[in-house]
Amino acid sequence: MKHKDGKPVYQSDKGSRKAPMVIVCVVLCGVSFYLGGICGSEKNPYKAKEVAKTVEASSAIAPLQIKAGTFAECTPDFQDYTPCTDPNRWRKYSSHRLSFLERHCPPASERKECLVPPPNGYKTPIRWPKSRDECWYRNVPYDWIEKEKSNQHWLKKEGEKFLFPGGGTMFPNGVGAYVDLMEKLIPEMKDGTIRTAIDTGCGVASWGGDLLDRGILTVSLAPRDNHEAQVQFALERGIPAILGIISTQRLPFPSNSFDLAHCSRCLIPWTEFGGIYLLEIHRILRPGGFWVLSGPPVNYENHWKGWNTTIEEQKTNYKKLQELLTSMCFKLYKKKDDLAVWQKSSDSSCYKNINSPDHYPPKCDDGTEPDSAWYTPIRPCVVVTDPKYKNVNLKSLAKWPERLVTAPERVGDVPGGSSGSFKQDVIKWKTRTKHYQKLLPALGTDKIRNVMDMNTLFGGFAAALIDSPVWVMNVVSAYSQNTLAVLYDRGLIGLYHDWCEAFSTYPRTYDLLHADGLFTAEGHRCEMKYVLLEMDRILRPNGYAIIRETSPLIDTVASITKGMRWGCRKENTEHGNAQENILICQKKLWYSKQTSK
Q1: DSSP secondary structure string for all residues of 95-136
Q2: Bridge partners (DSSP) listed for residue 161
Q3: Which of 320, 389, 396, 429 suits 542 as a labelling partner, its CA being 20 to 30 A distant?
Q4: What is the per-residue pLDDT across 404-413, written as a single tens digit (0 to 9) for each?
Q5: Under DSSP, is residue 302 helix (H, G, I), strand (E, B) or coil?
Q6: pLDDT > 70: percent of the chain
């Protein structure tokens, strides 16, 4: 993994972080974090009411009684605040390739130290799987998208709810019929070969939602906008999604990750700028993976009149698209009606041809790591899979669900990683998760749907929850050892992130946040107060947090969470380790006393 400046950065294994030699340092850091949280919140002090609803008591350690500072409420106009994709700051950045829609985080002097309120009338989200088809209007109170897309049946408002009939621009007969046709063209979608997918320009994520029942886990991707709130609708429905756009920076995923990529009239100009957007799809798609396109210029012969263009222009666009894909070692796999499917080649002879001096796009040879994807510019070159990898090809992977428990080839790239350490990690997280479920009985029930593992290694927590009605967004630090490729090889999803910054999502989008050693790992870079405020922003009211830390840090974390109106209690670990504790927290539902402007 590389730092933003290109220098390699690694962290030691999690187990070594807790050595007795660093206990004194941890204590001192904890005290400074605590004082920083108290002093920082003095800017807008208010009297916080005692948290009335705490997580149910258990037999371990009593609820904590620690005096805490308090955080003010943000004003109501911050109810959908996304710090690093804030529309109020768009004018500061270039419109070239829509780069203003990419991540642009505020400087430290502009960071907010307040609690983001829910909309007036916010209700506990509808539970999965019913949530896939309906959500409360007051939770996502946007009328614009319904008015603009009502003829395409994206969603419709009825009484207090939004309903999602499963329509879309390119699937007027419903998303189910659309995916049925796709499965006929790509049989690998039905036999466990294809497990992970990405949907660029996802709408309200109906495609990703339909695939969940077919055993395919999709990352739905769309940029922040002023009106549509596509990603917010997706997450309110219980479907995986993040804010993002293919523009000037690489997407926060490793190379050779996804089995399937999809664009349904996503309005991405694939043939412009030398095909640079296609080059990013090529990077994140594994060899043998599929790219599906519906919409312009596919089937232009029958649709060109409705696209406000000419048949000659669309014919030229399709030819250019095909030429670009061929130059990147994609092959047209199948085409029927409005769907065209290309497959990324796994044939080394095709990539050898890219080495010729006059070939465009050229092979990447500038030393940039294929997996470097945190504020890394997209390069106008083809990332070629290292020939040392024999089992990253889609056909070489075990089929789902065996894939989940098969040690991936790329685990060997992780310092200390091996088939043996992978298997030990699987066993460890089964034990830990079983203990978590005793401490938090809601885990594994329909009370928890959207889960984030904020500091994962191999995705062990997500794997242990595979039979529960949840999906897990795994996060690997952009400044730690790169293990994210291992997760994708297992058939899990996740992304790179730096917890010194805000996450790419709307407020109130996760039911459970799990942080294993996060503050120990990132405390030297990130101020605890701001990380916890970010956790509060993205956690749903009445949602939970499981924080696993060294004992001194646990008390410091607990003192800050009290100021965020969380109810927490300290618990022993599954083995009763005196140097480590678990904090079980629940965020209180509260409403702003201020009125919207």
Answers
A1: -GGGGGGS--PPPGGG---EEPPPPTT--PPPPTTGGGTEEE
A2: 136, 158
A3: 429
A4: 999 999 999 9
A5: helix
A6: 86
Measuring CA to CA, which residue among 447, 83, 80 is closest to residue 231? 80
DSSP string, 323-342: HHHHHTTEEEEEEETTEEEE
Helices (DSSP H) in 134-261: which residue ranges?
144-149, 175-185, 206-212, 230-236
Tokens of 333: 């796999």
- Rounded CA-CA distance 552/482 in Å is 28
Question: Which one, of 538, 543, 533, lies nearest residue 584 by Cα?
Answer: 543
Does the predicted model carry a pTM greater than 0.85?
yes
Residues 595, 325: Cα–Cα separation, whole Å: 53
The per-residue pLDDT for range 311-349, each reduced to its tens digit, is: 999 999 999 999 999 999 999 999 999 999 999 999 888
Distance from C-alpha of 99 to C-alpha of 244, rounded to nearest angstrom: 11
Task: Provide mean pLDDT across the span 414-427.
Answer: 97
Distance CA(452)–CA(492), nearest Å, equals 12
Residues in the chain: 597
Is pLDDT of 162 > 80?
Answer: yes
The β-bridge partners of 45 are: none
H-assigned helices in 440-522: 460-464, 484-490, 518-522
pLDDT higher than 70, residue 152: no
Helix (H) or strand (E) holding 434: helix 419-439
Decide: 591 and 542 in contact? Cβ < 8 Å: no
Cα–Cα distance measured from residue 419 to residue 290, given in angstroms and rounded to the nearest whole number: 28
Give the angle subtended at the CA of 31 by the CAs of 28 and 576, to the nearest 5°.
Answer: 80
Residue 163 sits at φ, ψ, to 5 deg, of: -110, 145
49 DSSP assignment: P
Q: For residues 480 and 478, what is the distance between their CA atoms, to the nearest angstrom?
A: 6
Between CA 454 and CA 580 the distance in angstroms is 18
User: What pLDDT is attached to residue 5?
Assistant: 37
User: Backbone phi, then psi, for 518, in 5-degree steps?
Assistant: -65, -45
Q: Which of 332, 440, 381, 514 is nearest to 56 (CA)?
A: 440
pLDDT attached to residue 167: 76
Name the H helices within 213-248. 230-236
The span from the first CA to the last CA of the chain, in angstroms, equals: 45
pLDDT(58) > 50: no
CA 329 to CA 345: how far, in whole Å? 5
Q: Are strands 134-136 and 156-158 parallel, antiparallel or unpaired?
A: unpaired
Cα distance between residue 384 and residue 329, in whole Å? 10
- Residue 308 — pLDDT band, cuts 50, 70, 90? confident
Residues in CB range of 111: below 8 A, 6 or more apart = 83, 530
Here the tokens at position 490 are: 């297992």
Per-residue pLDDT band at 593 (split at 50, 70, 90) = confident
Residues paired with residue 571 on neighbouring β-strands, in sequence order: 582
Angstrom distance (rounded) from CA 510 to CA 522: 21
pLDDT at residue number 273: 96
